[in-house]
Amino acid sequence: MLTKEMYQRYSRQLLVEQFDETAQQRLHNASVLIIGAGGLGCAAAQYLAGSGVGHLLIMDHDNVDLSNLQRQPLYREADVGKNKAESAARQLLTLNSEIRISPLVYQATPALLEALMPVVDIILDCTDNLPTRLMINEAAYYFDKPLFIGAASGNLAQFIALSPRQRHGCYACLYSPDQHTGNNCLTQGILGPVVAIAGNYQALAALYYLSNINTPEWGQLHVFDGMKMQWSQYAIPKRANCSICGDR
Amino acid sequence: MTITVNGKLLDFAEHINVVSLLKYLKIKPTGVAVAINNQIIFKDDWLSASLNDNDNVDVFQVVAGG
């Protein structure tokens, strides 16, 4: 049951034709693990918090750097040198104090993911390297949790929604570990709106899934080229011998 | 055989696979992904993935930053 204040706070999304009180209640009951509080995590977290997702668990062991402020709008100059997860949590609570936010000052490890997966509904992979992404993919499939992946570098953004219950390929069917080039925001640079586009895709797909008003397009790699202002889309087939999703 | 690679038409006298296409284009295979007709081809399958007339190939960068 929504309170009068909740009706007022969420009135604009409650006006969306497909979105109703039940959808809002579903968001209120949901828990989302956001791994990485950089450009992707900042973009996604602020909209999930604003929309009223009940519990956000935000994981990042890193500290805010002055060079982050260009594209990570949850942070202020006063946050430089402070932990990202804790700084993001503080800022998000000023946006919506009605929700729970748990800052997790950790680097993702298999053991940590094993402990967290059972208590969340979905995972947002907002990390910045291929080995960590492959580790998160494996944990999400083991614990049967939907995974919303964002990525960005230079002028390029990518988004993928994966469901272990669907018959598409997983992240390990998309990229091989040896395709890790080390390219990232440090080597290739990044434009703030480009990474925000990927993070906003993650937030939108998560809102649709959690509120149950729309089904994400599972198993598709969405590629955005900022220089052309164009999206492309590719199906990710399941590999028969995939050690993560092959026997599902 | 005519194939489209990243929007450009290319003609080949013989059938080729993804590996030989990348070699022809002088693209280093590390750090790129390949799709044929909007379907991802996993890297291990590039040698066996032969291209056919009128195929549409996209070669793009692996992106993992955030």
TrEMBL record, chain A:
Location of the THIF-type NAD/FAD binding fold domain: 10-243
Domain of life: Bacteria
One Pfam entry name: ThiF
CDD domains noted in UniProt: ThiF_MoeB_HesA_family
Gene3D superfamilies: NAD(P)-binding Rossmann-like Domain
InterPro entries per UniProt: ThiF/MoeB/HesA, ThiF_NAD_FAD-bd, Ubiquitin-activating_enz
Name this protein carries in UniProt: HesA/MoeB/ThiF family protein
Organism of derivation: Alteromonas ponticola
UniProtKB/TrEMBL annotation, chain B:
InterPro entries, per the entry: Beta-grasp_dom_sf, Mopterin_synth/thiamin_S_b, Thi_S, ThiS/MoaD-like
Organism: Alteromonas ponticola
Stated name of the protein: Sulfur carrier protein ThiS
